[in-house]
């Protein structure tokens, strides 16, 4: 397989196309290359500090009381200096998530030792906060009045929270069905215009992409390269927790593939700065019913993606046309990694086992353990050695999808089910003075534009 390689730095702060190399200005409101239409990287000049000196700077900030230093993203700001002044930075703070030993899960997978980097300890309960804080910061720098995303749940929750912190209007599009009520409740509570589209995630994303320029809205899905700049700090944090001694393998769930893309970019930068002892093998795991990149690798044609109609109970990765697939493939090839998929049964059992370690996660996160168990036992497409030093990424909190968990433990989890709520009224009704109900629209540009413009005119 031909390795996709790339240079980590540029002579000036800019955005560069991953295919044709065309360079765009840092403050252009674009998400794809104006010359060829492909994805963009955010690049900077190589930082003055490197190696142990840079690591010491990162570590020293942990004892600071300044919010920008306490943030698990901005503590590493030498490696994402796209802002002009620290006063522009938005922070909650976010990051600083734990690295957890998991002896029962390790035994289940057939490994000597397994550790989980649990990104569900973020303010809104998922890894999205690492990227959203950078994306919302860029939106504020650009002077945007509104930010928006299409989402299966976690992105919308994070965008709504960070937009509220930054004083921006938030617009989130979610499929009308198949979204956890726990995730939907976050978007509603944080004040976002929540639009339930009668279609799937990919349809919602395409609608938003077409409408955003007309309505002056800044898109914060993973097609936005600044989102990935924030997410790459997960690797900086992980390597610091490991004393800058890289693991043999990093296993990550694959949905829209922003995480794996950002992890590859981060590791490439750390290697150049002398902070990467070796290249960890990035292994991406998708659900069998939503596995376009896995199918491409298993067919031997990773240079070409065939989209699928996604179908999985792991709703956080229920995406059939992942926008960041080329960046993810670049990271996998550069690290000599692999992409695989697991069944609904494998995901459900792995999630229960992670719970037995007292950790817990949303269903999509459990794909990592499910894949490790199969690959260590069978090695059907990629062999995992039991002695490997493995870190698996858990992307979301266990409370993100409680219905799934309860159904599994009551032996009522089916591969095809639609979650419903049934309310029973008791006592006098309370006044919902600040109600922010979701708006259901048809999957058309006209219906979506009307809903968004109505909200924006109310501000």
Structure description:
With 459 residues, the protein is an alpha/beta fold. It has a domain of 221 residues: 3-Layer(aba) Sandwich (Rossmann fold), CATH 3.40.50.1100. The protein is built from 16 helices and 14 strands. The strands form three sheets. A six-stranded mixed β-sheet has the order 4-5-13-10-11-12, with helices on both faces. Helix 10 packs across helix 12. The longest helix has 15 residues. It is globular, with a radius of gyration of 21 Å. The termini are far apart.
Characteristics:
six-stranded mixed β-sheet; single chain; 16 helices; Rossmann fold; alpha/beta; 459 residues
How do the helices and strands follow one another from N- to C-terminus?
EEEHHEHEHEHEHEHEHHEHEHHEHHEHEH
Describe the global form.
Answer: globular
The low-pLDDT segments are: none
Q: According to CATH, what is the topology of the domain at 55-62 and 94-123 and 227-409?
A: Rossmann fold
In short:
With 459 residues, the chain is α/β, with parallel strands linked by helices.
SSE topology:
Layout: E1 14-17, E2 23-25, E3 40-43, H1 51-60, H2 67-70, E4 99-101, H3 103-109, E5 114-118, H4 128-142, E6 146-150, H5 154-166, E7 169-175, H6 181-189, E8 193-198, H7 201-215, E9 218-219, H8 225-231, H9 233-241, E10 249-253, H10 258-272, E11 281-287, H11 292-298, H12 325-334, E12 338-342, H13 344-356, H14 367-377, E13 390-394, H15 402-409, E14 439-442, H16 445-458
Parallel strand pairs: 5-13, 6-7, 6-9, 7-8, 8-14, 10-11, 10-13, 11-12
Antiparallel strand pairs: 1-2, 1-3, 4-5
Helix pairs in contact: 4-5, 4-8, 5-6, 7-16, 8-10, 9-10, 10-12, 13-14
